[in-house]
């Protein structure tokens, strides 16, 4: 898509906004609609647009498929890790209020943590799916 | 109406686009019903990423549906009508939309709406239900998504595997296919 100047310029302008919006949805999820799932998809959409316009190779230089696989696993592990951490701090599995001395702070901390885990997993999984579909050629 | 068009049209590219429109319509329906979180998900996943993935699949296969002839299956029609009738009959027992006496609104909803801010300390109830009260549920969803990625990788392989094979044309494709994915 090298010849479409308009597309390239507009995409360059749009991608930071998309990624920032994804982060906003992620970390503002306690106050407004949104959360890990939506944020992850929006974040991945930014990279998908990038690879549609600039080519799959460039996108895979930014986030390689291997890094995406590892991050996807790390997201789930972060979620489970927070669950197990609250387990060892004297609560039930995923009972966040034991994480910090203050109940509300602990709950908020835990929720932000697991939403981050979900967001990382969803973003990298969506990216992985896109890579594996777009990386193939017609047989 | 969009659904009927999706069933009828044989050009799969058009069908993909109509599926996206259908998702967007569903998202606006969710907004009307004040389920903004769900609407956001539907718009992002259904109208965004899913369409991209379907287009990627179309690029790999073909955008024309094969015509299997006009043979009409009467038994299928009967089964569909019985199932649909059963589902509609089932919804007759459900409470009306917004009914304050509905069972869902008498047990847990008051607790969530009135006390979740005190208990959890964050204003968005949907997030506190999703992440705290139903934390294990959401954990299951995250694991399911991860499992989906693992499944796709096992079937299709990641994009990088194919590229490496292209760089090295002498390599035996069969020997190269299975090993590097693990």
UniProtKB/TrEMBL annotation, chain B:
It is found in: Cell membrane. GO terms for cellular component: plasma membrane. The chain crosses the membrane at residues 12-31, 43-62, 74-92, 143-161. Residues 103-156 form the MrpA C-terminal/MbhE domain. Residues 2-61 form the MrpA C-terminal/MbhD domain. Residues 166-182 have a biased composition (Basic and acidic residues). NCBIfam families: PRK12504.1. It comes from Natronospira elongata. It holds the Pfam family MbhE. Residues 163-182 are annotated as: Disordered. This is DUF4040 domain-containing protein. It is a multi-pass membrane protein. InterPro entries: CPA3_Na-H_Antiporter_A, MrpA_C/MbhD, MrpA_C/MbhE. Keywords: Cell membrane, Membrane, Transmembrane, Transmembrane helix, Transport.
């Amino acid at each position: 898509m090298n010849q479409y100047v308009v597309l390239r310029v507009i995409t360059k302008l749009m991608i930071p906004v998309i990624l920032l919006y994804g982060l906003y949805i992620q970390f503002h999820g306690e106050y407004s609609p949104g959360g890990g799932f939506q944020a992850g998809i929006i974040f991945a959409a930014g990279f998908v647009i990038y690879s549609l316009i600039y080519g799959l190779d460039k996108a895979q230089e930014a986030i390689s498929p291997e890094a995406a696989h590892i991050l996807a696993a790390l997201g789930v592990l972060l979620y489970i890790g927070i669950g197990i951490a609250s387990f060892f701090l004297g609560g039930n599995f995923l009972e966040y209020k034991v994480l910090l001395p203050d109940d509300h702070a602990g709950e908020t901390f835990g929720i932000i943590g697991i939403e981050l885990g979900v967001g990382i997993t969803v973003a990298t999984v969506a990216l992985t799916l896109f890579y594996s579909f777009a990386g193939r050629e017609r047989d | 109406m969009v659904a009927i068009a999706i069933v009828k049209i044989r050009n799969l590219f058009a069908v993909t686009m109509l599926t996206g429109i259908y998702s967007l319509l569903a998202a606006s329906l969710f907004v009307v019903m004040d389920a903004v979180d769900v609407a956001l998900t539907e718009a992002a996943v259904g109208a965004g990423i899913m369409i991209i993935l379907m287009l990627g699949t179309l690029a790999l296969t073909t955008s024309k549906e094969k015509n299997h002839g006009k043979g009409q299956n009467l038994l299928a029609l009967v089964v569909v009508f019985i199932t649909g009738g059963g589902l509609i009959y089932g919804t007759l027992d459900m409470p009306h939309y917004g009914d304050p006496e509905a069972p869902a609104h008498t047990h847990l909803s008051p607790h969530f709406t009135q006390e979740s801010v005190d208990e959890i300390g964050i204003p968005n109830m949907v997030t506190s239900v999703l992440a705290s009260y139903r934390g294990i549920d959401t954990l299951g969803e995250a694991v399911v998504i991860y499992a989906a990625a693992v499944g796709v990788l096992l079937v299709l392989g990641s994009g990088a595997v194919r590229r490496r094979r292209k760089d090295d044309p002498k390599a035996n494709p069969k020997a190269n296919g299975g090993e590097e994915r693990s």
